[in-house]
Design brief:
homodimer; CinA-like protein (chains A, B); 18 strands; Alpha-Beta Plaits; Maf protein; alpha/beta; Competence-induced_CinA (chains A, B); six-stranded mixed β-sheet; Molybdenum Cofactor Biosythetic Enzyme, Chain A
Chain lengths: 414, 414
C-alpha cells in the first residue's frame, strides 16, 4: 500500500494561531481519490526540526506533501531544508525568476529583492507552476520518497493540488482506487437523531456512513466503491427518504442549491433584516448569477424595533415582508426580525401568499452563530417555498412558538 | 530544550472530516506557558501505525500528549498501542472500574460491557481523572519519554489538560518560561514589502518576527521573552513606526479596534452597499456594543447602477453617502459602489466633510475575497476618519484612480 504523508510547516500552524484547514482539505480530497494519508505532521519554522522531519518522513513514506514555508521572508525555509535533507545545492531556476519579474512588472512595481529567493530550489527539482502567486511549488525526490512542496496560501495550495499534484499522482500510481463520497447536507437536527434513523440501514459491503457537524449544518456522507453508480443512487434514495425532512441539499452546498433554485424559478428577491444585519443579503448574493435576482435590501438599525413586544414581533415581520415586496417590486421578500430573549421571527412574502414564524433556540449559541442560524432558517423558508415543500418543518434544534400563513387571495381581499 | 510533541489519533481527524481544534488549542496554551510544541502528528486508528508513531515519538521527544482513542469501541486502541510500544501488559485499574459503575448507576443505567475496557491501562500508568466522562486519561513513561494520554472529546480533553496535565508539567519542569507575542494587523500591503521594511531592524537576543498572511490581512508578530515589558513596548513602537501606514490594529483585530473607536467616539453610522451586498453592515454589527451605533443600512439591488459610467461612479457614491447620512440622521454614512471592470468606489460622509475614492485591484481575487477587500477598504476609511489619520493611504495591493474630498463648509454652501 502506498504510504502518503502530509507535513504542514510554520510556527503559526504549530502553535495553533491558525487551524490547519489546508491539511483537512487535502486529507479529504486525497481520501476520496484513493490516496488516503497514513500520517500527518506539523513542525515549526526551525531549520533543524524541518530537516529532521523531512528525513524521517522520507524513510517511512512513498509520497509526502509539504505545505508552507515557500514565501519570500527569512522564516520561510522549506526549500533550504529540502536541499539539506536531500544533500543537494539550492540553485536558481531562471524560468521562475523571469516569471517573478514579469509578475511585478505587470503591477508596475519593482520586484523586492527578497522575492528572488523564491526561484532558488533544490537541485533536481521540477517546478510546479503557481499561476496566482509568487511562490512556485516543486517536486523533488529524497531517499526514494517523492516530495511535493506547496505554498501555504490556501487558494494557491488548492489550485496547485487540484490541477497539478493530484493528476501527477494519478499518472504515477494509476492503480489506486478511490472511494466515492456523496454528501447530504442537513439543517435543524442533531447527529444522534440522524444516526438513530440511519443506523437501521444495512449497507452493502464496502459502503459506510460518516457524519460531519459544523454550525449550522450536519453532513451525512455515504462512502463506497468508485463508479458503482446504480447501487449508489439507490442507497442515496433510501437514505434521503429516512431523513428527507432535514436535507437541505445533496452533493452541493445549501447556498449553491438555493442559488440554482432562484435562477431556475427566475424569482427576484428583496430583504429586510434586523437580527441578521446584512448577512442574509450577503448569503443570497454569494452566487454571482443568483445575485442578478437580488433586489434591494434593508438592514434595520438596532434601535428600531419591529414589533413592540413578543406578541407583535411575528405580525410586524409579516407586515414588513409584504410592504418590502410591494415597495421593491420583487417577486419575493424575506424579513428577519429582532432577537428577543431567545426567540426571533422570520417571514417570507410571495405571489402565492405570506408565511411567518416565531422560533426559539433550544441551545446557547454565540452571537455570531445565532446570526448564522437565523440566516439559514430564512434561507430555508425560501428554499422550501421554491421547491414547493412545506414551509414549516420540524427543527429539533429550534422550537416553533408561532406560525402564520395567509394566501395571496386573502391578502388581496384586505 | 524540552522537546514536546502532540499526537492526534482517529480516522476522522486524519482524513479531514473534522478539523483538529484540540491540537490548535493545546499548541497555543502550551506555547503561552513556555511548553512550545516542537512537533505535532496525526495517525488513524490502525494499531500498527499507532504503535510505530508512539515508538518514533518516544525516541525523539521528552513529553508527548496523545489525544483520542480512549473510547469504549473496538476502534479505540490508544491504551493497547501504548502497552505494545512500552512492552508492558494491559491491566485493570479497579478504581476506574468502580468510577465507571458509579457513573452509570447515577444515571440508572447498567454499565455496557464495552465500557469495562476503559479501565484497562498499560501497567505502570498513573490515572488522570476525568470528572465529566467515562474515559480516564493516564500518564505512562515509554523509553524515558513521558506520555499523557487524553480523551478526544474537547470538553473532557481541555479540562484534563488545564487542571491536571499542565500543572504536572509545571511541577516537573519549573524552569520553562513562556514567550510573549504581540500582533500588528496590516491591510493593503504585501508580506515582502513588510519584510523589506522590517528586515533592517536589529532585534535583541530572544526576539524574532513572524508573518501570517490571510485575506485581507497580514499579521506581523513579535515574539520575545515573557514579562520583558519595557523593552517589548519600545520594540513595538519601532516596528509600528516603520509600517505605520499599513497597521490597522495592534493586539486586537481590526474589527474589534473599529468597534472600540465607534463606541469611544459615539458616532452613529448608516450604510448603503452595492458591491459589498450587506457584508459591510454585517462587519460593523459584529461587536454587540458597537452595533448599538449602527443605524439603517441599504443593500442596493444589482440591477440598479450607482453612476452610469466609470466617470460618474465616484460622484454617485459621493452623493449617495451624503444623502444616506441625511436621510438616516446618523453622524456618518458609508457607501460602497458597484464593481466595474476591476474598479470600485467607496465614500464616507461625516460631519466634517465627505471623502470618496475609486480604487482598482492589482491582482485577481475570487468574488468572495473581492467583497472582503472592498468591505475592509470601507471600514478602513471609517477607522482613519475616527482616528484623525489621512483617509487616503497608499495601498500596494490596490491602485487609487481618483479621490475626492469636500469639507462640510463647502457642502453646506451648496
Amino acid at each position: 500500500m502506498l504510504k502518503i504523508a502530509m507535513l504542514s510547516t510554520g510556527e503559526e500552524v504549530l502553535h495553533g494561531d491558525i487551524v490547519d484547514t489546508n491539511a483537512a482539505w487535502l486529507s479529504q480530497l486525497f481520501f476520496e481519490n484513493g490516496f488516503s494519508l497514513s500520517k500527518r505532521s506539523t513542525v515549526g519554522d526551525e531549520k533543524s526540526s524541518l530537516v529532521e522531519e523531512l528525513m524521517m518522513l522520507s524513510f517511512n513514506s512513498d509520497v509526502v506533501i509539504v505545505n508552507g514555508g515557500l514565501g519570500p521572508t527569512t522564516d520561510d525555509l522549506s526549500a533550504e531544508a529540502a536541499a539539506l535533507a536531500g544533500e543537494v545545492e539550492l540553485v536558481e531556476y531562471p524560468e521562475w525568476t523571469e516569471k517573478l519579474e514579469a509578475f511585478f512588472a505587470a503591477r508596475s512595481v519593482k520586484m523586492p529583492e527578497s522575492n528572488r529567493k523564491q526561484a532558488m530550489l533544490p537541485q533536481g527539482s521540477v517546478i510546479i507552476d503557481n499561476p496566482i502567486g509568487t511562490a512556485c511549488g516543486f517536486k523533488v525526490t529524497i531517499n526514494q520518497c517523492d516530495f511535493y512542496f506547496t505554498p501555504g496560501v490556501p487558494s494557491e495550495f488548492k489550485l496547485m493540488v487540484e490541477s497539478q499534484i493530484l493528476p501527477d499522482l494519478k499518472k504515477h500510481h494509476p492503480n489506486q482506487t478511490g472511494m466515492d463520497c456523496s454528501k447530504l447536507h442537513t439543517f435543524g437536527t442533531s447527529e444522534s437523531a440522524l444516526s438513530d434513523k440511519l443506523d437501521k440501514l444495512e449497507l452493502p459491503e464496502g459502503y459506510f456512513l460518516g457524519y460531519r457537524s459544523y454550525i449550522p449544518y450536519i453532513e451525512v456522507k455515504l462512502f463506497g466503491p468508485k463508479g458503482d453508480m446504480e447501487r449508489r443512487v439507490k442507497l442515496l434514495q433510501l437514505i434521503f427518504k429516512l431523513i428527507e425532512e432535514h436535507v437541505v441539499s445533496v452533493d452541493e452546498s445549501m447556498q449553491q442549491h438555493v442559488a440554482h433554485l432562484v435562477i431556475e424559478k427566475k424569482q427576484s428577491i428583496s430583504t429586510a433584516e434586523q437580527s441578521t444585519q446584512g448577512q442574509l443579503s450577503s448569503w443570497l448574493h454569494a452566487n454571482e448569477d443568483a445575485a442578478e435576482y437580488c433586489g434591494h435590501g434593508w438592514v434595520l438599525g438596532s434601535r428600531l424595533d419591529v414589533g413592540q413586544n413578543e406578541h407583535d414581533a411575528l405580525a410586524a415581520a409579516f407586515a414588513l415582508a409584504g410592504a418590502t415586496k410591494d415597495k421593491c417590486g420583487t417577486d419575493i421578500s424575506i424579513v428577519t426580525g429582532r432577537v428577543k430573549e431567545k426567540s426571533f421571527s422570520v417571514a417570507i412574502a410571495t405571489k402565492e401568499g405570506e408565511w411567518g414564524q416565531t422560533l426559539s433556540f433550544n441551545r446557547t449559541y454565540s452571537n455570531q452563530d445565532r446570526v448564522l442560524v437565523i440566516t439559514t432558517v430564512a434561507a430555508d423558508m425560501l428554499r422550501r417555498y421554491l421547491s414547493s415543500k412545506p414551509v414549516f418543518p420540524h427543527y429539533s434544534s429550534l422550537t416553533r412558538e408561532k406560525e402564520m400563513f395567509v394566501p395571496q387571495s386573502a391578502l388581496m381581499a384586505k
